[in-house]
Structures are given as C-alpha cells and as structure tokens.
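Hi C.,

You asked whether I'd gotten around to modeling the 559-residue construct. I have! Everything is below, sequence then structure, no commentary in between.
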Amino acid sequence: MSVANAGIIAAATGPEAEDPKKDIEVVPSHGNTFDEEHPVAPDQFDPKYETSKWEVWAYYAYYIGNNGLTLFNFAPTAFQDLLYEAAGDSERLQFLGAFRTINSIVLLANGISFAIQVVLFLLIGSMADYGRWRPYILIFWSIVAFALGFGWLGVHTQEKWPAATGLYMVGLIAYQMSLTFWTAAFPGLARNTPQMREKAEQYENSEITREDYDFADMMERNRIYNVAFIMQSAGEIVILAILVGILFALHVRDSAANNLWGLSVLIAYATGVWIVLSIPWFILEKRRPGQPLPPGKNIISVGFWNIWRALVQIWELKQSLLYLVGYFLLGDSLNTTVTVIATLQNSVVAYDTLTLTYLLIVGIAAQGAGILAYWLIQKRFGLSTKVMFDAVMIGIVILDGWGMIGIWTQKFGFHNEWEFWVYQTFYGLFVCQWYAYSQTMISEVTPRGKEFLFFSLYSIMGKTSAFIGPIVSSAIIDADPKGNNSLPFYFLFGLSLLSFLLLFFFVDLKKSRREQERFLKREEAAKERRASIISQGRPLNRGGSHGDDGEAVKKHAKM
C-alpha cells in the first residue's frame, strides 16, 4: 500500500536546504534586504561523514525490507481473519466493554494504535532531530518489529484473537516508528554526498546563490528518492512473487486454518527478508550528529517547544493556517478511507491470501505508474503544485463517494471482488500521489528558514488526525443495529468534500507567498530593532524589545 511509501516521499519533498539535524548559522546575504538562514553543518565538511556509495545502497536495502508487507499489510489481514473465525455467525465479539462488529474492532484498534503513536512522537520524536539518539532508536524499533513479525507464527488459531489484537496494535506502532526514524536520516544522507559538499562550499564562498543551492539540494534528494522508490517497488514485487510460491506450497485455499497459517508464515518470511536487508544499514550508516539542544531544553521538552513556536507563528499566516486545517481534515479522511476499504476488501475476498497478494501486486504496479505519470504531466505542461494537488483531492472525493453508494445497494460500493481490482488500480494511478503533493504543499506555504518548525507542526497534526477518523468510524458502525460496515462513508465523504472545498477555493499560493514575504520582513525588522537596542546597551523586555521600540515594531508590521 502506498502509505508504506509515505515516509520517503515526504523526505524527498520536504523542506529545502535546511536539515533539522544541522546547526543553523545566520550569514548576511548578498543582494537581499534581509539575512538568509542556511545550513552550516560540521558533518557536511567532515570527510568521515561523507556519504559513500555503499551507504546509499544500504539505505535503499533497508527500505526494500521495511516495505510494509509484514505489520502494515498482512498483519491487519491476519488479525481481521482471526476475528472473523472467532466471531462465527454472529460476526460480533466483546471488545473494550461492548459487543462490536469485526470491522468496528479493527477500526477501534487502529485508532487506539495511532493515538499511542501520537504520544510517542510527542515524547521521543525530537530524538530524530536532536543529539545522537536517532540510529539507536531505529535499531530498537526495528528489533521490536522483527520480534512481532515472528510472533505471528504462534498466533494463527481463532482462540488467540486477543493476542493478535496486541500484535496488530503494537505492530503498527513499531512499523511507523521504525519508518519515521529511518526517514529522518534521509536529508543528512543526501546533503553529505560529494556533489552536495561541493555545492555547499560554493555557497559558502558566494559562488552560487541560495536558489542555486536549494535547487541542487532538491535535485539530489529527488535523485535518491526516485532510485529508492524504484528499488523498493521492484524489490517488493519480487518478494511477493516468491510469497505466491510459498502460499501454494502451504495449500492456503484448502481450509481456513491453512489460510491463517499461511498468513503467519507470510509475515514471518517478509520479516526475515527485512532483517537480512536491514543489517547493512545498521553497520554502514555513518552516525552523523543531530542538532544540538537549545539552551534550557531537554530532549522531551524541545519537541513541545518547537510545536508551540510553530503554532504561534502560523496565526500570522492565514493561508498556511487554512492549509493546516484542510491538511488535518483530508489526511484524516484518506487514512480512514484506506483502512475501511481494506477491511471490506478482506471480507469480500474471504481473507484469501493468494487473492490479496495478487491485489497488492496490482496496486504496487499502479502506484509506480501513477507517480511517474503525474510527474511527467506536471513537467510536460508546467503545472503548479496546487493544480496537481487539486487533481489528487478529486480522486479522494471520488473514492468516498464510491463507498457511500454502497450504503444503499449491494451491487456497487465495495461489495464485489471486481471493485477491489479497480480500486487498487484507481488508488495507485490517482490517489497515492497525496503523500508527495501534500508534503510539497507544506513547503509552498512555509516561510524560508521556518521549514523545520512548520514540518514538525504538520507532522504531529497528521499523526493526530490518523486516530480520530478510525475511532469515529468505529462508533458509527456500533451505533447501527445492523452493523452496516459502509456507514462510515457518510462521515468520510462529507469530511473529504468539506476539505476539498476549503483547499480548492480558499488556499491561494500567490497570497501565501505575499504573506510569507510580509512575515519575514516583520521578523527582520524586529531583529534589527533588537540588535539596535543591544548595541546601545539598553535592556530588552521579556518580549525581546525595549518599551517604545516594541511599539515601533508593531507600527512597522501594520504598514
């Protein structure tokens, strides 16, 4: 599924020329009315941190291994299948104090898992950017994921569905945490290549402009990303092809018990591949130092501090704030839509492991074709990020409208097997690009030099939205006496349509750029005022200004 690729896409389209793991130094710009902030990182000029060819290939290898087949794709299927076998004809089980439908339990467990992820990211997410903890956090969560993957070998009979619930929920956490801390290495890897070292030196020597440096930075990240995505997609298809042979050898279609055992073996096999492919990265990664902690902050408080700073600043940028709201709502809708459709797909194909594997192969191939097609169309016709983003939003609204029709009829609306073949193709061609263009849009509405702050804010908002939708959808199903599993599409279609209208009609990137320019000018005026006060030996008040000078800054901001 494309969500498994979201991390690398986000990294490739993320903030330009600023690495959260690097020190920031303010250097006077040439030809500009205000100072530029640009990365000045000791590791960027230290030969021992220079990115080697083998390190890059080890990075690709980890991505091939952590492809999502284990804890993101097939573990949820195994969990839902165990619930189905345990529930019997009633198709309901006691879970968290109530008798719930199978789909409701899956959605609720999914929501709780994402809620725990939010807490973890708030508490330890800053370790991805500060200090030297990131590589070790990645190894820790990878080992947890490996253990959970093999743990499924002992959980393949219906009476063990409570244990499967724990494996599923913790598995999603381990998968997302390992993917996040692996992705965090991406900017440092790209910006320490020999090519970027040369560009950084040229920039420091004023031989090239900030725009030239940003462009080179973007192209280097895109090059590594494109190769990584191609390698991951090709590798995943090879892994799935081998899995098909294993599943035939296990005779998974002979009985429900064989199918459940096949799912457990599948998860364990893919976990073994992940282990083999992760070892080179654990050995060859160069432990580049992260950003030093700000004075008076510790590794826990700095994450909350950054989010607070971004929240305070975004209120001065109306377009950025509008996009934040729309991003929160539409991201929630899409994540929940994918989960709801996955539960319906598992049910319709009767959890048949071979069919699900074939569907996944089609989906992966369609995603590769879709991402390439969007990129070629945008390049050929010179379309803006906003235009491409709008096209993706239309695809999301269509998906939820498609599902909503299934509330009233069994003939259409994710009730037939053929629909899921169409869905996998449609999703890959027209929807999965959300994970790239939504991140690029963040960079479009973010003032230069504020990328790290704003990406941190959008990241935590995205994580927060991921648990609300599943919990609401679970409650909607539970509230219906018949337990109609399509009912969440009422909520999801309305949420997607509202988000689309907000983002399509009210987010204007030209207005956003003007707001960013005014914001940066106000901030520069405040910096100059503070510098003037300090040079005159006058004390600053708590707001960073001096009495009447603070009022002068406010007057300047209104001009």
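If it helps when you're writing up: The first strand starts at residue 24 and ends at 27.

Thanks,
B.
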